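Encode chain A's predicted structure.
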Amino acid sequence: MKMTDYLFTSRKGINNPITRIQAYRLLNEVASKMGLEEIGTHTLRKTFRLSLL
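Encoded structure for chain A:
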């Protein structure tokens, strides 16, 4: 991937990001399937930073 590419892309257009609301909905859907309580988009930010260490 290029630094200008989005990790989560929208179906609308080429290389457009999903909205923060859509990201929140997707995260919560996955969290509930995994048996986790509600999580937020900030959780990924923290996880990403830890994975870089």
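The chain has one domain: 1-53.
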